[in-house]
Hints:
Oligomer: single chain
Largest sheet: 5 strands, mixed
Protein name: Putative ABC transporter arginine-binding protein 2
Shape: elongated
Number of helices: 12
Organism: Methyloligella halotolerans
CATH architecture of the largest domain: 3-Layer(aba) Sandwich
Strand content: 15-25%
Order of helices and strands: HHHEEEEHEHEHEEEHEHEHEHEHH
Keywords: Signal
Low-confidence stretches: 6-23, 37-53, 296-300
Strand order of the largest sheet: 5-1-6-13-7
Radius of gyration: 19 Å
Number of domains: 2
Amino acid sequence: MKRGIGMRDAQRRAGFASACMTALSLSLLALLTWAAGIYPASAQSQNPLVPDVWQGDVVPQAPKLGDREKLRFLTDSDYPPFHYFDEEGVLTGFNVDLARAICEVLEVECEIEEVDWDDMLDRLEAGEADAAIASIRIDKENRRKADFTQRYYATPARFIGRKDSEISDPKPETLKGVKIAVTEGTGHAAYLKHYFPEAEILTFSSAEAANGAVKDGTAELAFGDGIGLTFWLNGVTSDGCCEFRGGPYVDATFFGEGVGIAVPKGDRKMLELLNYALYRVHADGRYDELLLRYFPMSFF
């Protein structure tokens, strides 16, 4: 199963220390705000990143709950600030509190269970929960086991380069012969081969290895998941070597459709409930509040 942020193991090995949380929060807030499409209303209608269910000013009619009194969510616990145990042992994070906000909108009890990441969709498929909320990427592989709500944030790709690199705005015509590191077998690698055919593409077994190639000078740039790169840039393993180059790339064909809430295959009623609740959480301003709570430094 693929996660919406591609630096889970690198983050764990790097020791995601509280000292880097401020810088990370700033970068992630900017990226998540951009990715979710939080713009003035006049810009939202023209922004292709805003989920269709969040477009417009008309709140959809509330679906009927029937006799449902509780929603059961699955998540995991090793992905701060998205989901993790705090110092008091309480499960918390952006995704956890988003699930709670959904329950508040629907006026039902909220049960959130922490499970192993690799077992999550299997347990959902087995009927052990109503939904899974754990930064799960909406793509072909994950759709084999689950259906998904509208995305609640996108997963843009980004370039990074060393701070002393002269490449400021990567484009196909400016990267002829330039060495670009990328994780092999990914949509990011396929994207480079399709749109940057004259670049020298170097493939690596992991995102951490690809990023390291930029750090040590083996490659001029690396290309990968933007949010995962944010973790790496602000973590200890980068040693402050590098920074983003150019803007974000969004292409569902190569990078997936974003991150959504997974539900059991064929459960259209649950999709209807969750999509309505996501709309309300966004329309009521609670989505913005959660961003500011977990990524507290504004990028304005």
